[in-house]
């Protein structure tokens, strides 16, 4: 893997001629750190408006996959074409260091002024207009001036979605945006992201340890485990046969009240312990640890 500070292509809505063109294409892609291969011979096309869930245990390469799309990591082999503006909701939040000193609108503004992964726009009024529009888009205007530290986890996550939308992305990368949210707020954040996807035909790559909150929206799953991967629809990938083959051990996938319950791969957060009575009683919601 070659590390680079290179950023993805410049921001801005795609021109009319780009409609329907893939927002990203991996061809025979390989990423490795020393002898550790995260994936090899990966082919994946991400189309406008597509929702792709990236699943896998800790350390399987989910964040690294997003970093490739961001241009922060370069493939060791194969090709990656990324042709559109990218919005990014990162897994770690450095700004949490001093949450009382930062207002919601300051956080959203980071997406505009290029201090981190923004697009380098100049001008206060333009910045304010973009921030206000992004705040309105996620319904966060009412608490935009409150210190971040006083806001709930769900409200903070809404602001992070707003930050990622300031670049008017054609591809939105979300790294575990549901972590530490309750079920209601998980649903709200997923619906917000899906709303953006439908309205602007924005493709979404969504890293998650829990597939059930996104299951109704997912077109494709990329499932990474120990240097191996599977790509397909949830019905193709989230099966007893496919996951058992991928993990190299016996995994059972069952549906309980429309939710997927994966039993037997304890290293993945979305899997459940088969001794857990919630997992084995039909009619009881289960499926996340
Ligand atoms: N720059 C790097 N240099 C060396 N190793 C790296 C680098 N970036 C990631 N790795 C390694 O690659 C593996 C995959 O890391 P990554 O952060 O992509 O995993 P992940 O699937 O996002 O895990 P988690 O679910 O814990 O967030 C890890 O073993 C990590 O230590
Ligand atoms: Mg990660």
UniProtKB/TrEMBL annotation:
Domain ABC transporter: residue ranges: 23-251
Q: Name one GO molecular function term.
A: ATP hydrolysis activity
Going by the UniProt record, its keywords in alphabetical order are: ATP-binding, Nucleotide-binding, Transport
Q: Which InterPro entries match?
A: AAA+_ATPase, ABC_transporter-like_ATP-bd, ABC_transporter-like_CS, Metal_Ion_Import_ABC, P-loop_NTPase
Where on the tree of life does the source sit, at the highest rank?
Bacteria
Gene3D superfamilies (alphabetical): P-loop containing nucleotide triphosphate hydrolases
Family named by the database record: Belongs to the ABC transporter superfamily.
Protein's name according to its UniProt entry: Putative ABC transporter ATP-binding protein
Which species expresses this protein natively?
A: Gordonia rhizosphera NBRC 16068
